Amino acid sequence: MLENFVDVLIIGAGPAGLMCGNALAAAGGVEVRIIDQRSLLAMVTGYKPRTIEVLHSYGLAERLIREGNQLHMCAFYNPSPTGGIEFTTRVPDVTVPIARFPFKIALHQGAVEDAFVDSMARHNLRVDRPVKPLAIELSRDQEQLDSLSSYPVKVTLARLDAAIDADKLEVVHAKYVVGADGAHSWVRKAFGITMDGDQTDYVWGVVDMVPDTNFPDIRTRTAIHSVNGSLMTIPREGEKVRLYVQLSEDDVVDPATGRVSKSRSSPEKILEVANKALNPFYISPLSDIEWWTLYMIGQRVASRFSVEDRVFITGDACHTHSPKAAQGMNASINDTHNLVWKMVQVLRGWANPSILRTYESERRKYAQDLIDFDKQYAALFSGKPKISNSQGGVSHEEFFKAYETATGFRSGISIQYNPSVIVNTKHQCCAENIVVGQRMPPQVFVRAADARPVEIHDLLPADIRFKILIFLGSMEEESRITEISVLADELSSPKGLLRKYSMDGQTSSLIFDLTTIVAGNKRNFNYLSVPPIFRPHWSKVLLDDTDITGTKGGGAYEKFGISSESVTFVIIRPDGYVGMVAPATALDDVHEYFASFLLPCH
């Protein structure tokens, strides 16, 4: 029997698994294996603004933006006095003012999976298919579990296409296992992790097609409430459209099993219901139906996301919910985005393994918040519309208020992680509009050396390093220059922050990436006046000023609530979330923050 050793074994190659594999491969120096027993699928999904930002941080968003259909508006239709539906209003689909990409993208899931696969190939990692896990064992020896050099997880695999029995079985010893194997997760079941929650009685049909229709908002995402049921339309890439159609439970649920059965329905039946809801408009397929399915809404969260900080479950393996909020793939990608940097820093010996516990504390809370939101959203969407003041039901105002209130959460922009070892809110007041625990908001600055405008997000790649933005403030007064020079000497000292975690004892660091932002004018500022420690490269000194057209950048100090008369640190985690903000006068607190989870280098 074959026997191999890896740092990380990923079971499942959907979006969560591929995201994990790509991030680990791109980090470098990690022995990783990713397996799957299925061929590639190509479901349709919606990419939220925060997910686009995350993919951009890996250099993978360009294809999605180019090939996908951008959703900028959402239209609402409600019952008309004549019994059909009528137009109510249109609003921006993303109303969060600090979204870098103020739209959603509709595109088949295969596009992002292909992007991950191509990127992994450039790092010499490929999905091993078709391979099935047969058994998994986690050592109970605490010494093994605590040792960074041990391989405490043993997984037996079967190669399903093996020509001879001798090549069929393999044992893989892993330091970590990531279960990204979907809603029916084998990994989750192997460790007896339960899925807690409920199955609703909401039943929906889904149809993907190129439509023939006179519905005027077919190329806009629409939410339709009618006396004949609810309907959502999502325009896809090309001429395609996805329909979500509310169905009657009696029509599609098998009474013997209590489960939806495709044998009790068909795309034609779903479209028949859709046309009743669309009255007085019509819709029919111009060509063959591309894909269709039925589903009942289940809203569940795994009781735990990890076992002994050695086995982790991600994506649909640890949370399931309705697809109409379009959070499934987005949540899955962000799960492993949250996990990978912590895992790599532990494997490299940079961080204490206890940092891995924050994966569950951060992502399980998010998953529970998602389920709570989904319960409200699904109930409102599936509820009977209110057509008069004397009747019960869901009014447009009630549904629209929930839609507007949750826009930050739906877009992923306002997700906020609670205080923890890696989220320190002690000095939030020194940069009150850079919310600690949320992702760094976008902002255009101007490079001091060449006046080129740069978006700060472009300087925050997902490369496992902490980014430290140093807002030096104004450098016009001599007293400020003296203050900054003293700070530079302190940071450069042998016990300074940068040398403490440096591999070679120098101020350059593999762990930290510094960018300095000065409240200065592009016409007269000399970037060489910035002490060398604050300008590791000429491109790393930025000005809070407008570009030469006067249309981009400027006003960041005021917008973020940062004083230009003092120095402020903004510490951004490798996943783009703000871990801490602090004034230079609280440098001891910055030391304490990093010392709570990073290991000093010698």
Fraction in beta strands: 25-35%
Gap from first CA to last CA: 41 Å
> Unreliable stretches, pLDDT < 50, 5 or more residues?
none
Number of DSSP helical runs:
16
Bulk shape = globular
- Relative helix content: 25-40%
Biggest sheet layout: 8 strands, mixed
User: Rounded to an integer, what's the Rg over CA atoms?
Assistant: 26 Å
**Which class do the helix and strand fractions yield?**
alpha+beta
- Would you report the number of β strands? 28
Overall average pLDDT: 92
Produce the secondary structure layout.
Layout: E1 2-11, H1 15-27, E2 32-35, E3 44-47, H2 49-57, H3 61-67, E4 69-71, E5 73-79, E6 85-92, E7 104-108, H4 109-122, E8 127-128, E9 131-138, H5 142-146, E10 153-159, E11 169-179, H6 186-190, E12 195-209, E13 211-213, E14 221-226, E15 229-235, E16 241-247, H7 249-252, H8 267-278, E17 283-285, E18 291-302, E19 306-307, E20 311-313, E21 319-320, H9 328-347, H10 357-382, H11 396-405, H12 407-411, E22 444-447, E23 453-455, E24 466-473, H13 478-492, H14 497-500, E25 512-518, E26 541-543, H15 556-560, E27 568-572, E28 578-583, H16 587-595
Parallel strand pairs: 1-2, 1-11, 2-8, 5-14, 11-20, 24-25, 25-26
Antiparallel strand pairs: 3-7, 4-7, 5-6, 9-10, 10-11, 12-16, 12-18, 13-17, 14-15, 15-16, 18-21, 19-20, 22-23, 22-26, 24-27, 27-28
